[in-house]
Amino acid sequence: LSESGGGMMTADTPVSAESYAVALLAVGGALRAVDAVMSGEADNAFVLVRPPGHHALPQSGMGFCLFNNVAIAARYAQQTYGVSKVCIVDWDVHHGNGTQEAFYTDPSVLFFSIHQYPWYPWHWGAADERGEGAGVGFNVNVPMRAGSTDWEYRQALEETLEPCVNDFQPDLMLVSAGYDAHIADPLGRMKLTVEGFYEMTRIVKALAAQHCNGRLVAVLEGGYNVQSLAESVATTLNEMRR
User: Fold this and answer.
1) Burial class of residue 31 (count of CB atoms within 10 Å of its CB; 0-12, 13-18, 19+)
2) Is the pTM of this model over 0.85?
């Protein structure tokens, strides 16, 4: 890093002099959303922040991410509100390796990631990565082939996520809401449409209603086509507030 504060934190994580302050605000936005949902101020919340977070490891940033917003929000909910069990759903096109790393041995957090595979981040995201020690079975990866569609994503959530959540019975649900699996996004090779993101939101919202009194917080992750990002976020917001 340069004396002015700019440079590369890691090989794929550029920063500027303002990045640290902005990253703190992003984390703060996620924590404020948890406050709103846990206090009953809001039924659910969507956190529109950047930088994203799900690649950030406990010891370093990675992949455009400085701090892991969702992972910090999960632990904050547990420590501040006594939440016993948190479910994190990550539908970004890239595997949420930082979130997996944070909770790999922790049975109090169910982490579910559906992502293009093989793809960035290399060496993470295989189906046999199921957790370690007490955390075995609480890390669920659903690797998807390039070109997967709305129907295949919906089927994966209905056949894999739903039974996992029904068994786990979380007190709070968090979503790493990335939109780079959209067919128009330049950083993925998937074929999701706005309708696909609507369906995933509908499924996760229904699970939160069933198990968490509707307590659901989604935090923006990836999405690099401005038009498809805007349309996909809008459909998530519309379904969450319906």
Assistant:
1) middle
2) yes
C-alpha to C-alpha distances, 33 to 4, 132, 166, nearest whole angstrom: 33, 30, 24
Two tokens, residue 158: 């209905």
Identify the burial level of 130 via C-beta atoms within 10 angstroms of its C-beta, where 0-12 means exposed, 13-18 middle and 19 or more buried: middle
d(C-alpha 240, C-alpha 242), whole Å: 6
SS (H, E, C) 154-173: HHHHHHHHHHHHHHHCCCEE
Task: Give tens-digit pLDDT for 104-120.
Answer: 999 999 999 999 999 99
Nearest to 101 by CA among 57, 53, 52: 57
List residues with catalytic annotation. Answer: 55
Q: How many residues does the chain have?
A: 242
Average pLDDT, the chain: 96
**By the 8 A CB rule, do 96 and 103 touch?**
no
Tens digit of each residue's pLDDT (9 = 90 or more) over 67-108:
999 999 999 999 999 999 999 999 999 999 999 999 999 999
Rounded-to-integer distance, Cα 125 and Cα 94, Å: 9
CA distance 83 to 79: 7
DSSP conformation class of 133: G
> Cα separation of 182 and 191, whole Å?
6
